[in-house]
Amino acid sequence: MEPEEPGEPGEVAWGRRGGGTLGGRGLLELAVASGVAAWAAWAALLMPGFRRVPLRLQVPYQPSGPQQVANALALLRGRSGKTVDLGSGDGRLVVEAYKQGLRPAVGYELNPWLLCLSNYRAWKAGYRGKVSFLKKDLWKVNLSDCYNVIVFLAPSVKPPLAAKLLAELPDEARVVAGRFPFPSWTPTSTLGQGLEQAWAYDMKEVRRVAQSSTEGSPV
C-alpha cells in the first residue's frame, strides 16, 4: 500500500482521519451537537413562559432590528397616552418608546429571562423605574386604557389578536404592527419595505370599515 501523498501547503484535508481534521462523520456529529446546543438554549432561555399558552397562540422570540424599531415608532410620533408592546421580548421597543416621549411605556412578556434582559436594558438606558415590564399573558391583559399598541408578532396570531383589540381598545387608539400586517385590516399608513415594514391602524377607522362591511353583506 503506497503512503498517502502530502497535500499542498494550506490545503484543508477534510477527508483525512487523524491530525485533527474532520471527515464526513465528524461533520455530521458536529452538526448534530450544534443542533442539540441550540435546542438546549431554547429550552433554558426562551421556552419558560410558553408552557401555559396554547400552542396556536405561542410566538417565538425574534429581536427587532434598528430599522424595524425606527419605522414602528415613527408611526407613533406626536402621539401620547399609555403605550404597550405585546410580547415585548428584550424590551428595546418599550425603552425607545419611552425615549420618544410615549409614557407610560409598558411591555408584556412571559419569558423570565427576557424580562431580566429588558430590565437590564432599561437600567443601562437610565430608565430604571420609569418603564415597566410585566410578566403577564398578553391574551389576558385588559387593553381598554391603552392608546398606542405595538405588535411584533407572527401572522398566525394576528386574527385572534385582531378580535381582542377590536373588543377592548378605545376608538382613539392606534395599533402599529411590525414585520407582518393584520390581514383583514386596512392600514392608515405604512412605512418601510420587506421585513422592516410597519403598518399603523387607527381603531376608529378599523371599526368604521368593519361596520360598513357588516351592513353591506347580504343577510
Features:
single chain, 219 residues, alpha/beta, 7 strands, 36% helix
Word description of this protein:
The chain has 219 residues and is an alpha/beta fold. It is 36% helix and 13% strand. It is globular.
Short description:
The protein is an alpha/beta fold and 219 residues long.
Strand sequence of the main sheet, in spatial order? 3-2-1-4-5-7-6
Whole-number mean pLDDT: 82
How large, in whole angstroms, is the Cα Rg?
Answer: 24 Å
Would you count the extended β strands for me?
A: 7
The gross shape turns out to be: globular
How many angstroms separate the termini? Answer: 87 Å
Measured by DSSP, the beta-strand proportion falls in 5-15%
The helical percent reads 25-40%
- Largest sheet report: 7 strands, mixed
**Helix segment tally:** 6
Task: Give me the secondary-structure category.
Answer: alpha/beta
Low-confidence stretches: 7-19, 42-57
Strand and helix order: HHEHEHEEHEEEH
